[in-house]
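Good morning C.,

I know you're traveling, so I'll keep this short. The sequence:
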Amino acid sequence: MIPVSEYQSRRKALLSKMDENSMAILFSGYPKKCSADESYPFEVNRNFYYLTGIDQEDSILLLFKMDGDEKEYLLVSPFDPVKEKWYGKKLTIEEASLASGIRNVLLNSALTTRVDSALSGTFGDYGAISKVYLDLERENKVAEGTYIEDYKKSLETVYRNIEIKDIYSEITKLRMVKSEAEIEELRTAIEATRLGILSAMSKIAPGKQEYEIADEFHHVINDCSGYQGCAFPTILASGVHTTCLHYPTPVDTIKEGDMVLMDLGSRHNYYCADVSRTVPANGKFSDLQKTIYSIVLACNKAVANYAKPGLSIKDLQSFTVEFLASECLEKGLIKDKDEIKNYYFHGVSHHIGLDTHDPGSRDLPLVEGNVISNEPGLYFKELGIGVRIEDDLLITSRGAEVLTSSIMKEVEEIERFYSSRK
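The tokens, ready to paste straight into the viewer:
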């Protein structure tokens, strides 16, 4: 659990990035329409959640910085007994204050008045605000029928002398470095993922449907996490489908001789695990499967040993391409190194955190506290063999810790697991 003091520290860090005579307006988000009168399940804006710990739609964070003084306000929905009967309980003002560590909690109906008083120069002891920071992430819905770009234009129309600046990158830079509490959240998500993978593997066999294996994983992680669900839609592919990176329809039958690729993860308080494992459907690698798998596994280990502060994700990608090309050439799987692009065509790494693909630059040097994926793969469609092995790495002062090291991936481990099952 992230302590309230950490949310307070995060807001302090963001305020330090803001100019004097400025304010930030940040929204938790609003449900998006799915079809007819149905909305998609609400997912809180992760930048808002990172700063407040509040997981509730139609909430707003206001940060003010003026003459060396700083103020923060949280705006939440009012209590509505009728809506509560239909949609469940919302946070009271007192509960929102305790969860976020923000003393000044108001009803969200105060937004227009509060913003107008700040931008017109009548906000308490403050002079007029000259700069407004918004999180201008595309598709950020902030109210019924209103997206962040609409809100930006409305401010520009009414307050012509203010400067509006995007604060998205400043928040995501803070998010890139994980605290000890965040790392513990990730470890919890990874442990649920480990148990889910173990149970899913126990069900894999020729004749099973792909979705049966995915359902087993979903059942176990929900039991482990208190129904917090998946970090992302589960990829469960067999046979030639293992060569499709984001195979979307797990409805095929697993066949004798197939490889089965699982790319999946649990989440805990929105912190995401992201793991891939590939196993033989019948529990025994063929010689060709073992050759391809062993190349990917060796690359996975080499990347983990190579990753360290100062290198960038772009550097890890170059290392991976060279490693896979050299090994495939040596094993006779390709005739020229340039051919590797036909069999490995995605990135080896991305940041992980509150989002599975956490915001973060591929070009910036890694620093201690970054958590990234390590996911080399090879995909030979003509052979019906795709292999991806993905771990989650914590960048430390001396290199990288494999947070997912407890999830089996050695050939001998996998074959022993299936042999003991039989």
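Safe travels,
E.
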